[in-house]
Amino acid sequence: MYLKELELKGFKSFPEKTDIVFKNGITAIVGPNGSGKSNISDAVRWVLGEQSIKSLRGDKLEDVIFAGSDKKKPMNYCEVSLTIDNSDGEIDIEFTELTIKRRAYRNGESQFFLNGKPCRLKDIKELFLDTGIGKDSYSIIEQGKVDEILSNNPGVRRKVFDEACGIAKYRYKKQEAERNLKNTSENLERINDIYIEIE
Ligand code: ATP
């Protein structure tokens, strides 16, 4: 599995459609200060479902959308597509290649697509659990992240190890099952109340 391609349109400092193709191996992105290098890694985290605007170095939701320049008008929406080569089947999906796309509008509306089909953020999150790729995983180490991991409490550090050794998925599924159980027992209680009223 490897990151094959990243396509940006209207994302931060990339108003034009910009296609970045990665070869299998190491790729370094170099450029002067402020040229948009970090915006590229922000785009990767954003398309993987990052919801925290602060961690994308913005103040409000629309800060990910191109805000305009001397020569160009602001854009109304942005979209990022990330293509992953999955020919080794490391991601549990039938496709040898998968493309995730996220689109967002200034009014806050946001959409996700998986291989062209609309999907939920939850689907993206579950797909990448335990692969090391998710938005919270260790595959993206931004500035200050190492310090943050080292200085955080043991619970936060453990999350990193859980993801690395494949436990995160089960923890997530357990939490989801507990949530469903709670909802179901609340529904049962409600039904019982109605039943008693009718009797
Ligand atoms: P450094 O080497 O200093 O870390 P960098 O190459 O990582 O810099 P970035 O932080 O990725 O640069 O890009 C910063 C640039 O992106 C700034 O010029 C900023 O104005 C521009 N930028 C950020 N958000 C937007 C936006 N929504 N619309 C237009 N431009 C934006």
From TrEMBL:
Residues 167-199 form a coiled coil. It is found in: Cytoplasm. It comes from the Bacteria. ATP binds at P32, N33, G34, S35, G36, K37, S38, N39. Belongs to the SMC family. Homodimer. Required for chromosome condensation and partitioning. This is Chromosome partition protein Smc. The gene is smc. The chain holds residues 1 to 199 of 1184 of the full protein.
